[in-house]
Specification:
With 127 residues, this protein is mostly helical. It has two domains: 73 residues, Winged helix-like DNA-binding domain superfamily/Winged helix DNA-binding domain (Arc Repressor Mutant, subunit A, Orthogonal Bundle), CATH 1.10.10.10; 35 residues. The protein is built from six helices and three strands, in the order H-H-E-H-H-E-E-H-H. Strand 2 and strand 3 form a beta hairpin. Pfam families: HTH_20.
């Protein structure tokens, strides 16, 4: 589990629109080179590198050397861990409730079974 400092780093990284856009780009194009990512922004490469450093410190971006370049990948694990911190205990309860609703809805809209039809016919005939 993440400690508060780890989560603070993730929230800080996600707080800036440019960094969120970087994650969107990396989600769509995994393994993108740093230079190609920088070309997507109207700021200096140095500014992009500073944003990347914050994303990497939060564990949201993983880089892999590739010759003279670095390939960048989005790492969803820190966000998933934050999500699970507040949702896991409720997931089982709500999954059960949704399943119950599904079965109730299906039984309410299901056509009558052949057994139910024959019982109704017997009731009308007086049998």
């Amino acid at each position: 589990m993440q400690d508060d400092r780890d989560m603070d780093a993730v929230f800080h990284a996600l707080a800036h629109a440019s960094r969120r856009r970087m994650l969107d780009i990396l989600t769509a194009r995994p393994g993108l080179a740093v230079g190609a990512l920088a070309s997507e922004f109207d700021v200096s490469r140095v500014a992009v590198m500073k944003h990347l450093a914050i994303l990497e410190a939060a564990g949201l971006v993983v880089s892999e050397p590739d010759g003279r370049s670095r390939r960048l990948y989005f790492n969803v694990v820190p966000i998933q861990m934050i999500h699970e911190r507040w949702t896991t205990q409720y997931s089982a309860y709500w999954a059960g409730q949704l399943t119950r609703i599904k079965y109730l809805a299906e039984s309410a809209t299901a056509p009558p079974s052949p057994q139910a039809k024959s019982r109704k016919k017997g009731e009308r005939d007086g049998s």
